[in-house]
Amino acid sequence: MIQLLTMKHKLEILCIYITGLFQGLALVIVPAASLVFTDPHQFGFSSSEYGLLFIPQVVTAIAASLLGPSIARKWGMKTAFRLGLVFNILAMASIAASQWFVGNHHAAYVLVIVGTAFVGAGFGTTLPTINVYATNFFPKSSASALTVLHTLLGIGTALAPFLVTVLVKQIGWWYLPIFVFAFLMILLIGAFILPLEDERIETTTTVAGPDVFLPIRVRLFMLIVFLYGFCETIFANWAIIFLNKEKGVQIDQAGYALAAFWVMVSVGRLLISILSVWVSPSLIYRILPVLIAISLAAVTKVNSPTSGILLFALAGLSCSAFFPLTFSFAQKGFEPIAERVSGWVMASYMLGYGLAAYGVGKMMESTDVSLGSWYLCSTAVALGVVLLSFILTQDPAVGAELVSAQSKINRDRH
């Protein structure tokens, strides 16, 4: 019986961590297939249409990240986990089905945009849930557990452009969402069979009520992650189109450059988690946006497939640990409202993602400004991240005192 329970526990861990891998794949399939969707001989989406695909994804991801904790509290983490898998399954089905309507512009576009909406809902619901599970599985080494989980997520995002590039040449890009769909179905079955402790997330009573304010420091973290989300998305969503259409890099090499970006995001997280034993995380947090600014300027100088791969790899390393570190710093001093802070930081990141995904495409169509120019102009955004990173790595004790004072006010009101 002990061996049986041990095996079940191992399967639970495997289910959660493999979900992280496939969540990464699901998240990047559409950006990885960007040239397929914008090719006039295939889907023929314009730059603004391609960018618009990500607006529903942003909206649903924000909604899911803010509502997800309520779902987990009311119906349990297992229900939230299953719901996230269902959203991702619907996303893959819709995106794959678009290939059969490639001759019908309107129908194909509707299917892809519905698919990206479900991707956002799946990401916003699944990621917080598997974070909680990973922490619960390894309470004494939660930081390492989350590092491994996010590394698998990064591997999934790195595999997507590589697999799409290979499949486009061999049998068709749409086999990737079908493949992900099949594995997500297996994971969903596992989520029904395995115990997966159905604990409800407890709410904190320290800060309650709809009138809870967000301290200035938290708002600044929301601003920095909004700006960072813009920079990361400029790299991730537009890399293949930029390299192929403006730099003349072949589609397979452009796909490898995007894959290199996501590989280095994952590798960088692991390396920096080791480096932080000797180097202050605050110093790392200040250095990374400087490297992001350098990378944004550097990619405009791509002159060969090799330089494209190397410079986008540098960009991935620059972005690697900034997002996880932001969550870590944002919650320091605000533990009583950590859940609320986490939700709003995630929502702000998705707003930056949406602006870069849609806004850049719309502006390119309206002004004829090249993608290379947008990369160069985005260095100003990255410099804003640099400035805020120095401000926000100060002592958060003042923020804790503000939250404590506001908590007392709220308790007195109720």
Helix content: over 70%
Mind describing the biggest β-sheet? Answer: none
Give the averaged pLDDT, no decimals: 84
Tally of discrete structural domains: 2
State the CATH class of the largest domain: Mainly Alpha
Q: Supply the number of helical segments.
A: 16
Question: Explain this structure to me?
Answer:
Mean pLDDT is 84; it is low at 1-5, 199-212 and 398-414. It contains 16 helices and no strands. It folds into two domains: 1-195, Up-down Bundle (Growth Hormone, Chain: A), CATH 1.20.1250.20; 213-414, MFS general substrate transporter like domains (Growth Hormone, Chain: A, Up-down Bundle), CATH 1.20.1250. It has helices at residues 2-32, 34-38, 47-52, 54-75, 77-97, 105-137, 142-170, 175-193, 216-246, 251-275, 281-298, 305-319, 322-331, 338-367, 371-392, 397-413. It is globular, with a radius of gyration of 21 Å. With 414 residues, it is mainly α.
Helices, strands, pairings?
Elements: H1 2-32, H2 34-38, H3 47-52, H4 54-75, H5 77-97, H6 105-137, H7 142-170, H8 175-193, H9 216-246, H10 251-275, H11 281-298, H12 305-319, H13 322-331, H14 338-367, H15 371-392, H16 397-413
Task: Briefly characterize the structure.
The protein is built from 16 helices and no strands. It is an all-alpha fold and 414 residues long.
